[in-house]
Design brief:
This protein is mainly alpha-helical. The protein is built from nine helices and four strands, in the order H-H-H-E-H-H-E-H-E-E-H-H-H. Helices cover 52% and strands 7% of the residues.
Length: 222
């Protein structure tokens, strides 16, 4: 298998998805030029369940980089195994059904999974378990199956990972099925907070410096 970075893998899927899902050449060129991933994911969300996906499109839609996707295919079933022709393609319905089964297998779950697979308007969701009153009682995993991979967790967080309507900060207040994964999400969240804080302080410092160098009219002596 050719080695490919996470970024290159998802960019390949983005371009392929844009070609398949946007019929208008002008609009497609504009979306690709802007690298507008959000628009393409929204179009994939809205596409019928019969829409055909290549593997690169599936990687982009589910936000699973190539090396992770290949590992899932080896450890579980290959959803493209029965596909014919080149490139191999499967329906959106088949892709999401496979992804749900992978999640159940990864987490040894016998019950029904709650939470949308794929993307939502507010980001990539987590898979959750609910009690009889439909309240979230346990976080199972991120929908990208990022278990014990800090790099992938940071990427998922940067893309707007969410649990239903909960942000990551709120999700960390809930119990998780895998404490080790929760620790990695907490670590990634700390990194994000530190980075955001540093960027905010730098912005304030630049503003203060810019304002200090402005010469007011009163200070000009004619």
């Amino acid at each position: 298998m050719t080695l490919i970075s996470n970024q290159d893998s998802l960019e390949e899927g983005f371009i392929r998805s844009a070609l398949e899902i946007i019929a208008n050449p002008g609009k497609r060129s504009s979306v690709v030029a802007r690298s507008d991933h959000q628009t393409v994911r929204q179009l994939l969300d809205q596409a019928p369940r019969t829409t055909l996906f290549t593997q690169s499109m599936a990687e982009f839609y589910l936000a699973i980089p190539r090396r992770q996707f290949e590992a899932l295919k080896r450890a579980h079933s290959n959803p493209f195994a029965k596909s014919v022709g080149r490139p191999k393609m499967i329906s959106k319905d088949g892709l999401l059904t496979w992804f749900g089964l992978v999640n159940k297998s990864v987490h040894a779950m016998a019950g029904k999974l709650e939470g949308r697979l794929g993307r939502t308007a507010s980001g990539t969701p987590f898979i959750v378990m609910r009690d009889a009153k439909k309240k979230i009682n346990r976080i199972v995993s991120h929908a990208g199956i990022t278990t014990l991979d800090l790099d992938a967790i940071e990427e998922a967080f940067a893309r707007g990972a969410r649990i239903s309507s909960l942000g990551v900060d709120q999700a960390l207040m809930l119990p998780w099925a895998n404490p080790a994964e929760k620790r990695l999400w907490r670590q990634a969240y700390r990194i994000y907070i530190d980075r955001t804080h540093a960027e905010t302080v730098a912005l304030l410092d630049r503003q203060e410096l810019d304002e200090a160098t402005v010469i007011s009219p009163e200070s000009i002596v004619s």
